Amino acid sequence: MTILAELLAHDLADVLDEPHVLFGHSMGGLVAHQVAKHRWAAGKRMADALVVAACPAPHLVSPLATVVDLDDARLAIGLDTIGGLPPELLDRPQWMSTFLEGVRADLKLCFAHSYRAEPRLPCAIHVFGGEHDPLVRRSALAGWRRHTSASFTLKMLDGNHFLASDENSGLRSEVFALVENVTHSDAPRPQ
């Protein structure tokens, strides 16, 4: 995870040197947090905000820790149960193993990452969760509060774990409004 964050911070340096908001859904929340930490440790411009959805706070153990070692059939059933199996795969089972390899690699990346206590980020953190998310509870989302020395918000939406792909969850409009507000505010920006 640290190497991934360093590579992303390097490859996106030109973009991240401008006003920006980092967003991550599920595993992406951990990645976005690591990119923000890397930028701050390097003395680079901080994000105007960190926005995460359906992601437990980085100091907590992921609720998916036990699924990494499941066989393909059980992993697919688990993903389907929580709405994480794209319907296209059900029509093309020959793609299933390739899809599950990617999922398993993402999960291993998350679980190989160990949290180290560090100073709080000086940017606002905004967290979204799904009221019907069977994986990430409100308390795990609220844990993000301890990772910022700036403002913190938590909003629960009517949806499950996959808020980012659910057009009816309201996540997109919430994030777009937040980005618009943060990037066009006259408030001082963290450096």
TrEMBL record:
Q: Cite the Gene3D superfamilies for this sequence.
A: alpha/beta hydrolase
- From its record, what is one biological process in GO terms? lipid biosynthetic process
Residue ranges of domain Thioesterase in the record? 4-166
What Pfam families does the entry give?
Answer: Thioesterase
Recorded hits in PANTHER family, A to Z, give: S-ACYL FATTY ACID SYNTHASE THIOESTERASE, MEDIUM CHAIN, THIOESTERASE
What protein family is recorded? Belongs to the thioesterase family.
Q: What is this protein called?
A: Thioesterase domain-containing protein
Organism ancestry: Bacteria, Bacillati, Actinomycetota, Actinomycetes, Pseudonocardiales
